[in-house]
Amino acid sequence: MARLAEGQPGREVCGFVVRRGAGAVEVLEVANVAAPDRAAAAFELDPAEELRLLQRLAAEGGEVLAIFHSHLDAPAIPSPSDVAGAFGDGVPLWPGVEHVIVSVRAGRAAEVRRYRAVQGALVPAGAPEPNCA
């Protein structure tokens, strides 16, 4: 992920961390199709490429472990658009799948953080489950 993020310093990169049917874990980049004027601060997975990847994983018995993207000259914390894009009507769009953010500063990966979608927020992956009262 860090190498991919460093390789495109002018735009956010995005993709998936997957477990192949045979058990191998891979990082797979998916094209960021956000408009050029937004691509340095936002990501949008290419839907056709995403669909092909998910179909291939399903056929081989693989699974998505995480969605990743980079932040350029910003910390590896979820932006409001990251949070909004992780949910549909308050429900996680990718239940059980982590969200990974790579912070790229001055062209170098500076930090990587993992999050999970819980109750309308992206919380650090190691954080305890919030109380459900």
TrEMBL record:
Q: Which InterPro entries match?
A: JAB_dom_prok, VirAsm_ModProt
Question: What name does UniProt use for this protein?
Answer: JAB domain-containing protein
Q: Which domain of life is it from?
A: Bacteria
| UniProtKB keywords | Hydrolase, Metal-binding, Metalloprotease, Protease, Zinc
Any one GO BP annotation for this protein:
proteolysis
Q: Name one GO molecular function term.
A: DNA binding
Q: Where is the JAB domain?
A: 1-115
Q: Which Gene3D superfamilies match?
A: Cytidine Deaminase, domain 2
Q: Which Pfam families match?
A: Prok-JAB
